[in-house]
Amino acid sequence: MAGSEIFVTGGTGYLGRHLIPRLLERGHRVRALVHPGSKRKLAPGAEMVAGDALNPSYTEKIPPCDTFVHLASVSHPSPAQAKEFRSVDLAATRVAIAAALAAEVRNFIYVSVAHPAPVKKAYQKIRAECEEAIRASGLNATILRPWYVLGPGHRWPYLTVPLYWLMYLLPATRDMARRLGLVTVNEVTGAMTNAIETPCFGVRTFRVVDIRSAGSDTARGR
Question: What is the pTM of this model?
């Protein structure tokens, strides 16, 4: 689907800043919802749509597009932000779903989180509610469920790699190790690109193993 029209929320966030240049390099046209004060963070070549992810009025600014990528969320989530997960993440997702439906978007991409897991309970709960809202909407959608995304500024989890190897070796913890495996920002943005270029009917879920596979396929040019 080279040359697709793509609309992105959260385009100046961590994943957005890595995804948009990749899409532009592959010949897609990208428009991103951006607070005016964050304009300088938007990748060169992307078109800015000024607005707020929590304000439904941006729906009127969405031009015809093939794919809606929803990345707007609370940055650096922690247990102390439980209220923000509902007032920001869930609220912004509901607005994005309504906007995508109004614009008759054919493909919706959402980054959730791996679950179940022993930590991040409040974060997982809200992301699960967001997933349910997407499923209930009738949109064709791909939901990605990474656990922790490695990349520039996100490198401390490399310290846990030995623990993951041990968990893989033990039958009792092997499934958890696979579900909560670490993925790189290149793998996640590659998987999102794959989902954009190979849209589905209905709702599909990319778990950690799928993110790695789809991201690798994109890197190989498939």
Answer: 0.89
